[in-house]
Specification:
alpha/beta, 7 strands
Length: about 210
């Protein structure tokens, strides 16, 4: 298939992207690793001994960063529809997060232990219809929030990717009801033209 001008431009930008080059040289699965590293460093999200759940983990860049930071004694459980080659310190559940069997397997691996940090870099398959894509992205964020409220420790944290648009402010308002502090982050590694931001809920409230 002949490449379009848009796909050629994307490939040219991707190849020349400093974070892509850095990820390749430092052995990370994706440039997205630096998004998490930058946010986690600023907000002190990762430390040894933590239990972390990474939703929408493929190809594994976030899980790599998390596993390095929670060692020794910590654990990362990664979930995605796509296969992820093995990573040290990471347990992988392959499946759709909408699916009850996937959630059951994740809960089996947790073995009743509460989670310190839930990460969600989930994004829907893009249709090109902005309203549909935004609605699907928000639905994934809501699933991740529901999981977090159920499984995080008191004062646990939740970091989720969102796209600015319909439903964004409503979601942030819901987060404020569940967490003591809500922060919006746009890490340096996130391309400036992208509407993606990362929203951090710090300090899960209980009761």
């Amino acid at each position: 298939m002949k490449r379009t001008k848009t796909s050629k431009a994307w490939m040219r930008e991707h190849v020349n992207d400093p974070y892509v080059k850095r990820a390749q040289s430092e052995g990370y699965r994706s440039r997205a690793a630096y998004k998490l590293a930058q946010i986690a460093g600023r907000d002190k999200l990762l430390r040894p001994g933590m239990i972390v759940v990474d939703l929408g983990a493929a190809p594994g860049g976030w899980s790599q960063v998390a596993a390095q930071k929670v060692a020794p004694g910590g654990r990362v459980i990664a979930v995605d529809l796509l296969e992820i080659p093995a990573l040290p310190g990471v347990s992988f559940v392959r499946g759709d997060f909408h699916d009850a069997t996937t959630l059951a397997e994740l809960e089996r691996l947790l073995a009743g232990k509460a989670v310190d940090l839930v990460l969600s870099d989930m994004a829907p398959n893009i249709t090109g219809i902005a309203s549909v894509d935004q609605a699907r992205a928000m639905a994934l964020a809501e699933l991740a929030l529901d999981f977090s409220v159920k499984h995080l420790k008191p004062q646990g944290n939740f970091l989720v990717k969102l796209f600015q648009g319909e439903g964004f402010e409503k979601f942030v308002k819901a987060l404020r009801g569940d967490f003591g502090q809500v922060l919006v982050r746009k890490p340096e590694a996130s391309r400036s033209r992208s509407s993606e931001v990362y929203v951090l809920g710090k300090g899960l409230k209980r009761g």
